[in-house]
Amino acid sequence: MPFARSAPAHPFFGPRLTPPLAIAHRGGAGLWPENTLCAFQRAMAMKVDVLETDIHSTADGALVLIHDPTVDRTTNGSGMVNQLSLKQLKSLDAGYRWSGDGGRSFPFRGQGITVPTLEEVFSACPEARFNIDIKQVRPSLAKRFCQAIRDFGMDARVMVASFSSRALREFRRTCPYIATSASEGEARLFYLLTLLWPWAASAPTGCYALQVPLSRNGVRLMARRFLTSAHRRNLHVHAWTVNEAPEMEELIRLGVDGIVTDYPDRLLPLGGR
Q: How far apart are CA 62 and CA 224, in angstroms?
């Protein structure tokens, strides 16, 4: 059995959230156009626990939710997000390239779906919990991002992530009361210490969760020893990105605290919902 522990001491992990958390990756990218208000609202109607998304800024400083540094893969436009104005970005069709059948049809084209701003999503989904991944390191988003969280009263509803240790350190200094997960480097160090010197493994300051893939470079990361070590330090462990039901079931048996998936419709029935 997994090591029993209480939830991390942050209001983001409130009593209403019961593991395993269903975390909709980019709002459920396998079901709807990723990182769009359309996806977020449909995922919330499905009763997911957390909406996972990504943040960049436009040339004129608007905070927008999009994964890539360019708009090419997900819209009918091209160019770097941080070199486009918000008006230019809003003119693009963010449902243009989504297809659920391998490109035979594009059911969301021409439906008025745009790249959303952070403020639009906070306004439309005030009851949601968000896992927001800082993708843009420079110029820094920390101050504007922190202020937006405070302005919308989302302090207890946002956990911030990033692959970049630099981006997370800056955000933690700016917004120390907001929950964060470990960066890639922090998670890697914790894993290595768990294997080599388990007594030395400790959570980075401000870190409440380890969000890691099932494996990396042929090494299985999601193992009982890793989870036990994390749980002893009151850390959540979230697995990403898991899209097949057998793997979801295995992770639930193992005792992970959350599963990030493109297909929350496959996960929710397995978690007893």
A: 42
Of the chain, the end-to-end C-alpha distance in Å amounts to 22
Q: Which of 67, 231, 236, 238 is catalytic?
A: 67
Q: Against a cut of 0.90, is the pTM above it?
A: yes
User: Which entry of 10, 25, 236, 238 is annotated as an active-site residue?
Assistant: 25
Beta-carbon neighbour count of residue 199 at 10 Å?
A: 6
Based on the residue annotation, tell me whether 236 is a catalytic residue of this protein: no
56 included as an active-site residue: no
From first to last of its 273 residues, what are the pLDDT tens digits of the chain? Answer: 343 444 567 889 876 566 799 999 999 999 999 999 999 999 999 999 999 999 999 999 999 999 999 999 999 999 999 999 999 999 999 999 999 999 999 999 999 999 999 999 999 999 999 999 999 999 999 999 999 999 999 999 999 999 999 999 999 999 999 999 999 999 988 888 887 776 666 776 778 999 999 988 887 888 888 898 898 888 999 999 999 999 999 999 999 999 999 999 999 999 756
